């Protein structure tokens, strides 16, 4: 007997006993920094029609012919600058695994398994669900690690889960974690992380710039609630930290391609601050649950050098929640709330 239509699947531990499993899902990242590793990752990512909505007949020739011949070299160099050389892996992978391992400790006494998977690349969502089922979990909480909802992130992660479930004869019950843009536990974790990062400075920064991953305006116009979610996060964080719109502005980074994306764009916004007399700033990137190429390289290297070249004096990069106690407290709070009725 097999619980899968697909061949080669291992036999599961007994299901049907109500065992709960938790799957942390993040974006994905290349396996190495070489041209072909980065190309493989970008090809899978940028072929997702949730991410690039243009017709594949138009987009695929551009992607395969232009983007994937140029971009892997540039992105590979950026990944090399931020690579976790101790483990020979991308920071996004290190932190996602760490979050999963730490969360697993919080649930071990309750016989609840915690695993992690990636929307693109390895370990895949399918592998992670398979792991939980093999351990006998028939109730799965799927947690896309995106505080703000976007079809390009949350929905495509959920799609990937359900695509796998479509192949199963015997499916587990599943719940998916909603976005948590202004959940008090999330805002508390952000505020505490910011306070810790700023506590060692000789003087407080003049401004804390918030920077979220951008999104094409067109997607928002079609109904993606991402911008509103980012605004809710920033409003709640300002309140928690006693700050205003002026000293905690909202910006969007990581624009890709020629279309108009959400504004203001982080890089020119920050490069324009020194001429207004703002020379010591901190940057917080609340949309990223883990440090990655976008936070460590785009902001930590590229935007920092533009700011310094424009006359800026100090840019403090506030780390993402990563493997901090605050991060794990947040994940535990969210998970416990979602598994109510499944586990005590
Ligand atoms: C049209 C292109 C892209 C959309 C839309 C998009 C949305 C989006 N992405 C994240 C989170 C992350 N993106 C990351 C990297 C990354 N993003 C794009 C493009 C789009 N993202 C590219 C091409 C890349 C690869 C890096 C590069 O070549 O510049 C990452 C980091 C991955 C890592 O390995 O470190 C994250 C995280 C969100 C939250 C989002 C929509 C809101
Ligand atoms: Fe992205
Ligand atoms: Fe980027």
From TrEMBL:
EC numbers: 4.98.1.1
Pathway: Porphyrin-containing compound metabolism; protoheme biosynthesis; protoheme from protoporphyrin-IX: step 1/1
Signal peptide residue numbers: none
GO BP term (any one): heme biosynthetic process
This protein's UniProt keywords: Cytoplasm, Heme biosynthesis, Iron, Lyase, Metal-binding, Porphyrin biosynthesis
Residues the entry annotates as binding Fe(2+): 213, 294
Catalytic reactions on record: Fe-coproporphyrin III + 2 H(+) = coproporphyrin III + Fe(2+); heme b + 2 H(+) = protoporphyrin IX + Fe(2+)
Entries under PROSITE patterns matching the protein: FERROCHELATASE (PS00534)
GO CC entries: cytoplasm
Pfam families attached to this UniProt entry: Ferrochelatase (PF00762)
Cell location: Cytoplasm
GO molecular function, one term: metal ion binding
Function noted in UniProt: Catalyzes the ferrous insertion into protoporphyrin IX.
HAMAP family in the record: Ferrochelatase (MF_00323)
PANTHER family tied to this protein: FERROCHELATASE, FERROCHELATASE, MITOCHONDRIAL
Family: Belongs to the ferrochelatase family.
Protein name, as recorded: Ferrochelatase
Organism (species): Acetobacter oeni
Organism ancestry: Bacteria, Pseudomonadati, Pseudomonadota, Alphaproteobacteria, Acetobacterales
């Amino acid at each position: 007997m097999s619980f899968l239509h697909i061949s080669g699947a291992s036999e599961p531990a007994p299901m049907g006993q109500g065992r709960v499993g938790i799957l942390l899902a993040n974006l994905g990242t290349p396996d190495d920094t070489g041209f072909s590793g980065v190309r493989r990752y970008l090809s899978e990512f940028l072929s997702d029609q949730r991410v690039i909505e243009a017709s594949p007949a138009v987009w695929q020739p551009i992607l395969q012919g232009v983007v994937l011949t140029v971009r892997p070299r540039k992105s590979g160099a950026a990944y090399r600058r931020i690579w976790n050389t101790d483990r020979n892996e991308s920071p996004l992978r290190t932190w996602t695994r760490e979050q999963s391992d730490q969360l697993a400790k919080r649930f071990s006494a309750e016989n609840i398994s915690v695993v992690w998977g990636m929307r693109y690349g390895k370990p895949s969502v399918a592998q992670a669900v398979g792991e939980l089922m093999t351990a006998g979990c028939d109730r799965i909480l799927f947690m896309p690690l995106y505080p703000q909802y976007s079809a390009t992130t949350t929905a495509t992660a959920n799609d990937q889960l359900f695509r796998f479930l479509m192949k199963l004869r015997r499916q587990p019950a599943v719940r998916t974690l909603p976005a948590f843009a202004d959940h008090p536990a999330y805002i508390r974790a952000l505020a505490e992380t910011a306070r810790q990062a700023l506590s060692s400075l000789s003087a407080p920064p003049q401004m804390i710039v918030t920077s979220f991953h951008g999104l094409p305006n067109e997607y928002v116009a079609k109904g993606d609630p991402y911008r509103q979610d980012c605004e809710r996060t920033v409003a709640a964080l300002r309140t928690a930290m006693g700050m205003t719109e002026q000293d905690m502005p909202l910006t969007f980074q990581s624009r890709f391609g020629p279309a108009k994306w959400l504004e203001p764009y982080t890089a020119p916004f920050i490069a324009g601050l020194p001429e207004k007399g703002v020379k010591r700033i901190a940057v917080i990137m609340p949309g990223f649950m883990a440090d990655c190429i976008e936070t460590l390289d785009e902001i930590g290297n590229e935007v920092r050098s533009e700011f310094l070249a424009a006359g800026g004096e100090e840019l403090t990069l506030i780390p993402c929640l990563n493997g901090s106690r605050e991060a794990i407290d947040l994940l535990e709070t969210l998970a416990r709330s979602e598994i109510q009725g499944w586990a005590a």
